[in-house]
Amino acid sequence: MLQTSGIHHLTAIVNDPHINVEFYSNVLGLKLVKKTVNFDRPEVYHLYFGNKQADPGTIITFFPWKNLAKGRIGTKQVGVTSYIIPPNSSDFWERRLQAKNIPTTKANRFNETYIQLKDPDGLEIELVERDVEYDGNPRSEEIPSEYAIRGFAGAVLYSIHPDKTKVVLQHVLGMDLEGVDGEYVRFKTSASLGNTIDIKLSHSVRGLAGAGTVHHIAWRAKNEVELQQWKELLQAKGYEPTEIKDRNYFKALYFKEDGEILFEIATDSPGFTVDENIKELGTRLMLPSWLEGKRQEFEKILPQL
């Protein structure tokens, strides 16, 4: 049976790219690892943030659309994105966020305590302590390595049909059922990052796409051979996956699961160093070969970062 090892990346929609970079780079301390364009709408940036190696399981990406109407977080969406912070670092993060006038609350789920906050566009974020190996450097002097975010802990899904989404996670994507805690059911994968997926069993608010919402969640596939196997499996189970698309840094396909959340399956290879060396990641605008001829045009219309 095919099994995904967890989250490859998440992609969200926001408004201002400058505010986006300020928050995720300078507040959360993630590294801007790729500055490119939305391949389907290349007049818009596609910004990738993660750890210094741009590893799968650490990557959150954004389409920043200025003046786009604000969305509403709700059903048919990823509702919450969770990040791992090291053991005994919660006090540091609470003080840091308070100093930056970012309100926080706390919640408990599956015997873990989550620090909850929102980014400037209203995306819901959680920080949770877990003991995960880390070989990255601090993103700034303000965040020592012993407190730095390690990568994704997981995500909370707001499905319109939670029971059907449970079936997809367990019997299509191959995740293990971990248990139930109140209004949440948890699934787990074999990876150390991006490995816990919670489904909220009831959510009364209907989601509306727009700024401040997650566009899709992507699951990991090892390579193109496995991605083709995923496509065949999805077709055999009655889904309608897209054709395999070349996203330059990975190959990917997309499908709507039965709870109407947009899922992607993306390959770990070739990775984000295919067009930049690791020390230069995120330092300049990178374009795929089929758009390189329009570089001057894009550089004129895209805001300077």
Automatic annotation (TrEMBL):
Q: Name one Pfam family in it.
A: Glyoxalase
Every VOC domain range: 6-130, 151-268
Please give the InterPro entries that the UniProt record associates with this protein: Extradiol_RC_dioxygenase, Glyas_Bleomycin-R_OHBP_Dase, Glyas_Fos-R_dOase_dom, VOC_core
Q: Which residues cross the membrane?
A: none
What GO molecular function terms would the record report? dioxygenase activity
Alphabetic keyword roster: Dioxygenase, Oxidoreductase
Protein name in UniProt: Ring-cleaving dioxygenase
The organism of origin for this protein:
Lederbergia graminis
